[in-house]
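Worked problem 6 (solution included).
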Amino acid sequence: MKKILIIDHSLTARFIIRKMVEKTGKSVSILEASDGVEAYSILENESADIDLVITSLMLSKMSGITLLKKMQLSESLCRIPVILTCIGGGREIIKKQLSGCNLAGFIGKPVTYRSFMRTAGGFL
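Solution. The predicted structure is:
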């Protein structure tokens, strides 16, 4: 069974992504975090089991960019693919900022099932 971590300050955003995962019909265990500090704590404790992280760039306590950079520095976390959810453009700038991180792609907000499957489907 795959395990994913969904990180977003918005309960609604986490709910939508959870429902999209469930809609795939695949057997997936889902963990959730509402901010970057909580997410990093989960990652440190569950690193061996997490197969994918889906995170917003805009997080409280620790931004999505800072979270990915911290993951990159950890031998156990740097292997986990990360998909960023974000509003608007600037993806090329973000890619440059996260060079060396295991960035697997972007999903624009609002998240649609089609965009979710195109980017995250292969990881489930």
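Discussion: The beta strands are 2-7, 28-33, 52-56, 82-86, 103-108.
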